[in-house]
Amino acid sequence: MEGYGSDFSAGGAGGKVDTGTIMEQVKVQIAVANAQELLQRMTDKCFKKCIGKPGSSLDNSEQKCIAMCMDRYMDAWNTVSRTYNSRLQKERARM
């Protein structure tokens, strides 16, 4: 377990923890996890919607369906994300 926490104290003087660095690392890890979850959900939903009988390749209609499904899913996710962030900013401004 040598070096297990070394990333967290690398920038601190005298072994002090740099909370700003830790917070940035946590934010990056959360963003990566969210992106992975988004991709997994989109893949699951579009596969179930577009692929009737799995085989060794996708036919033309399945390819189009997958592309359109993923585009719609991303558009919807972006709309929800923008609205959510806008509401968060309004709430923070009120405080």
Automatic annotation (TrEMBL):
Residues 25-85 form the Tim10-like domain. It is a peripheral membrane protein. The keyword Zinc applies. GO terms for cellular component: mitochondrial inner membrane; mitochondrial intermembrane space chaperone complex. GO terms for molecular function: metal ion binding. SUPFAM superfamilies: Tim10-like (SSF144122). Pfam families: zf-Tim10_DDP (PF02953). It is found in: Mitochondrion inner membrane. GO terms for biological process: protein insertion into mitochondrial inner membrane; protein transport. Keywords: Chaperone, Disulfide bond, Membrane, Metal-binding, Mitochondrion, Mitochondrion inner membrane, Protein transport, Translocation, Transport, Zinc. It comes from the Eukaryota. The twin CX3C motif contains 4 conserved Cys residues that form 2 disulfide bonds in the mitochondrial intermembrane space. Belongs to the small Tim family. Heterohexamer; composed of 3 copies of TIMM8 (TIMM8A or TIMM8B) and 3 copies of TIMM13, named soluble 70 kDa complex. Associates with the TIM22 complex, whose core is composed of TIMM22. Mitochondrial intermembrane chaperone that participates in the import and insertion of some multi-pass transmembrane proteins into the mitochondrial inner membrane. Also required for the transfer of beta-barrel precursors from the TOM complex to the sorting and assembly machinery (SAM complex) of the outer membrane. Acts as a chaperone-like protein that protects the hydrophobic precursors from aggregation and guide them through the mitochondrial intermembrane space. This is Mitochondrial import inner membrane translocase subunit. It comes from Notothenia coriiceps. The lineage of its organism: Eukaryota, Metazoa, Chordata, Craniata, Vertebrata. The gene is timm13.
